[in-house]
Design a protein that fits this description.
The protein is mainly beta. It is built from 1 helix and 6 strands. 7% of the residues lie in helices and 55% in strands.
């Protein structure tokens, strides 16, 4: 039987989607992205061990609706705020070569 998204995200907190290797763009899988604190009371940080060029970070509800989107020429770290009700949210980090989605609990 198929698992619902809720069941899937309880089993893992990372999903790797549509990743293609590129020599000139940092490897998202090995960027050592950290989302903390998790769970959060609202304010959280995202940090990458390596700079990520031309990326977009989206905060999304579990149904995939984009709450906020941020664009960076070069990303290493930043602070974000979730003002929505308590629940599980998704953080998507995308480049032209792929996307990583992590979950965050508020």
């Amino acid at each position: 039987p198929n698992k619902s998204l809720d069941q899937f995200f309880k089993a893992t907190d990372q999903v790797y989607i549509n990743y293609q290797e590129s020599a000139d763009i940092p490897d998202l899988i090995h960027a050592d992205l950290k989302v903390f604190p998790n769970p959060t009371k609202g304010i959280f940080s995202i940090r990458s061990e390596y700079p990520i060029d031309n990326c977009m970070i989206e905060l999304m509800s579990m149904d995939g609706k984009v709450i906020r989107a941020f664009y960076y020429d070069v990303f290493t770290s930043d602070h974000f705020e979730l003002t929505q009700v308590n629940g599980i949210y998704l953080v998507s980090i995308s480049t032209k070569n792929g996307r990583i989605i992590k979950r965050i609990i508020k």
